[in-house]
UniProtKB/TrEMBL annotation:
Protein's name according to its UniProt entry: Putative damage-inducible protein DinB
SUPFAM superfamilies: DinB/YfiT-like putative metalloenzymes
Lineage: Bacteria, Bacillati, Actinomycetota, Actinomycetes, Motilibacterales
InterPro entries: DinB/YfiT-like (IPR034660), MST-like (IPR007061)
Domain of life: Bacteria
């Protein structure tokens, strides 16, 4: 039997109802909630199940979503916010969709570990900033930290909708 890349769903907590009094707690809380939601949709599945593309002709898979959101974390937090030069991990200029397409290139357990590590690195970068008004050091300084974190909540929410449908097609599991 293939080792499960993620045996159990991580703890997931909605931001407190009074978090709207603290913008940072609210936005970062929702971002972590959505990160945990994606991992929860992947929990308990084998590598084969994570790689399954159950909604033809779409190439979406849960593993592809993990790979894609790893790239998105890197691009927005390392690249845009911190101004680092980041090379893609799962795709290239010659194969721009390989985060979704080339699933066999990296074992699922390694993808999950990299995703979790990238999220943790993003948390550290955000925590190091004293204000949500700080401008990005990359992408010509066009984005505030507030915009980046808000965008990431939107990005995860959209892809978690995909993950809901994919998981239900794989094993019938439903839930928020």
């Amino acid at each position: 039997m293939t080792e499960l890349p993620l045996a159990a769903a991580p703890a997931r907590t909605e931001p407190a109802p009074d978090a709207d009094l603290d913008e940072r707690a609210m936005l970062e809380g929702w971002l972590d909630y959505h990160r945990a939601t994606l991992l929860g949709k992947c929990a308990g599945l084998t590598e084969e199940q994570l790689s399954r593309r159950p909604v033809p002709p779409s190439s979406l898979s849960l593993l592809g979503l993990l790979r894609h959101l790893t790239e998105v974390e890197r691009g927005w937090f390392r690249g845009a916010l911190a101004g680092e030069q980041v090379e893609p991990v799962y795709y290239s200029e010659q194969a721009p969709d390989d985060d979704f397409d080339d699933l066999a290139s990296t074992p699922a357990a390694e993808v999950v570990a990299r995703f979790e590590a990238e999220c943790e690195h993003s948390r550290r970068l955000v925590a190091a900033e004293t204000s949500y008004d700080v401008r990005s050091r990359g992408r010509d300084g066009r984005f505030s930290l507030r915009w980046i974190v808000s965008h990431m909540v939107e990005e995860y929410a959209r892809h978690n909708g995909h993950a809901d449908l994919l998981r239900e097609c794989i094993d019938g599991s439903t839930g928020d």
